[in-house]
Design a protein that fits this description.
Shape: elongated
Number of domains: 3
Oligomer: single chain
Structural class: alpha+beta
Helix content: 25-40%
Radius of gyration: 30 Å
Number of strands: 16
Bound molecules: adenosine-5'-triphosphate, magnesium ion
Length: about 475
Amino acid sequence: MTDDFEVVIGLEIHVQLDTETKMFCSCSTDYDDAEPNTHTCPVCLGLPGALPVVNKRAVEYAVRVGKALDCEIRDETRFHRKNYFYPDLPKNFQISQYDAPINEDGSLVVSVEDEDHEIRIRRAHMEEDPGSLVHKGGSIERSNYTLVDYNRSGTPLLETVTEPDIRSPEEARAVVDTLREILEYLDVFDASRAGALRVDANVSISQDGETGNRTEVKNIGSTKGVVRALRYEVTRQKNRLKRGGDVTQETRHYDDDRGVTVTLREKEEEKDYRYFEEADIPVLRTTEFKDDVGVPELPRERRDRFRDEYGVSDEVAEKLTSRKTVADMYEDVSESVDPQLAATWVADELLRELNYRDADVDTVDAQEFAALVSLVSDDELTDANGVEALRAALDEDRPPVDIVDERDLRAATEDETVEATREAIEENPDAVDDYLGGDDGAINFLVGQVMQKTGGSADPATVNEVLRDELDGRKKQEG
Ligand SMILES: Nc1ncnc2c1ncn2[C@@H]1O[C@H](COP(=O)(O)OP(=O)(O)OP(=O)(O)O)[C@@H](O)[C@H]1O
Ligand SMILES: [Mg+2]
Ligand SMILES: [Mg+2]
């Protein structure tokens, strides 16, 4: 036995498609603040005799994703019943896709530590979300009883399945993040919605080229969870193998609180699901509309364009484009100010302040923010006062330029600066003497005085210059 382990990971990433109605009925998907079991009908409750009707918008969204992932989009796609018994599934089967999924054979390029890796996409198929189980008294392991809410039941899901091409937990995170960015650009997914993205992470260790058994960690709700669960699972499996043991093929549960995975059940096999064709839904032909489904500029393309068009660095371009809303904001701002300055203000100042407040870029009006950056660009506002105005604007939810006016933050004019400088000289004869006597450091004290007089609105470098001019003039007069 050697220590020559290779980590093999494949992901199944389920996302809710952001449609107004459910996958097979017209119940609203806007149930987040609703009472349990109020967004239901005979179809999504799975009552006998109820007939599903496919949501056209969901299919269009699925095609959009398929195109963005370079998949082949089937001309004819079919739905199947995937049978299993669980209380979140009132019909005892989930309508899913089996041997004729809408999207197949695609790819996704992710970058990990500045290196591009291509991950093959096996398929991205449509299905319906089950209801949600509410484990009373905490987690699935500890609660005494469970309630079920069918509001979620029937929400459109797209399951993207990668080939086992992923080699580390960090790369798995990059895959999930990259896919999420793309989905946001495609406008098919609401990332802010709790539980809208769930990952099943499959992992095995091959040793000396021999494939090991895989475990599947189900239902991980966040990218952070994906990394933690996989790191735990990789270590657990390696330790077993090192001790000469075996990894059991099984389904595991990720406990987010404890950061561990625990056995849930033996991995079901395909035959356990007794897949059979959903006879209530006819074969779906995509030929008539699939060519009309357009794909907008995607994060990678936009990043490359930002680099070429605006001359920003790779790193900044990445920061600006990872979220569509941020990229849009940047382009709005750089219409009126220098793109480099706009990049600094969006990628550094704005994102930092938003991050600090746990706020979303959506809450910022691009025109109002651009007006602030314009003032800085025209030297009418110092950087520091610009940041002060931005902070107050975010805290008080007001236009930043209003704050600038209210607090009188505008940069001092040349005349104001000269006047404040003369005052400072009059009021501080000792410092003046020190400077004239050769103590150059005394100038810093005087600069500080002028800054105080102008309420921080003068530019320190200009003040320094004006002070030297004035004082050197006196030196000559005296001398
Ligand atoms: N040896 C392996 N190690 C790690 N991952 C693997 C390995 N073999 C396959 N996988 C991954 O397992 C996943 C299989 O997903 P798929 O949905 O096809 O089947 P399933 O997990 O059996 O079914 P279900 O949808 O019920 O979970 C893919 O992401 C694939 O890349
Ligand atoms: Mg699957
Ligand atoms: Mg699976």
